[in-house]
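Lecture notes, unit on protein representations.

Consider one protein chain, 214 amino acids long.
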Amino acid sequence: MTLTPTAPAASVCAWLSASNRHHPLTERTVLELSRRIQRWQHHPEGPAKAPAAVRRSALRARDRLVRHNLRLVSHTWGRHRHSLPASDEATADALQEGALNLMRAAEKYDPARGYRFSTYATFWVRRGFAEIEQRGKRAIRFPAEKAALVLKVQRLSQEQEATTGRPPSLAWLAGQCRRHGKTLSAQALAALLQQWQLTRTGSLEAFSADSKDN
């Protein structure tokens, strides 16, 4: 489900095509897959300490559930596309984030509550696109180069947590990012994320001097 970053336009077309290859699962199958995921997520010592066999079974179940519901992402993206960033790269990122939110839905879904997985998953996918819209508005007031790094960090963090069940460390995330040809330090990344957080209230004055220095 990872989009190819070197060819966003081609990736978007391939992703949309792939999302329609798999037909929806029967409710019985959804229930069986969800139970396997729940055994992992609700392990007494937490997902990270669940037995390897339980985790492998759950990840296979989660991936199958996501794969057969990717059309929810493409359908929801089609309804939100006019309010999302218009570039091919931004679209590729939006679809990837939609898939990550679908993974979260698969991990959190509890069939005992009585609603269908598609209903629950659609809520999560919509929520993801709404967050992208808000980030896009905030990025207008944030230096483009820094905004790109923050969005990359957020995406990497979501991918790692979706795959391993644990959030990555700040040091690991910093090691995946380069600025001015150099790898970011954990301290520099922490400062950058704090600056980004301040844009929620429009309080850019707090780091305007730092932006000039960096």
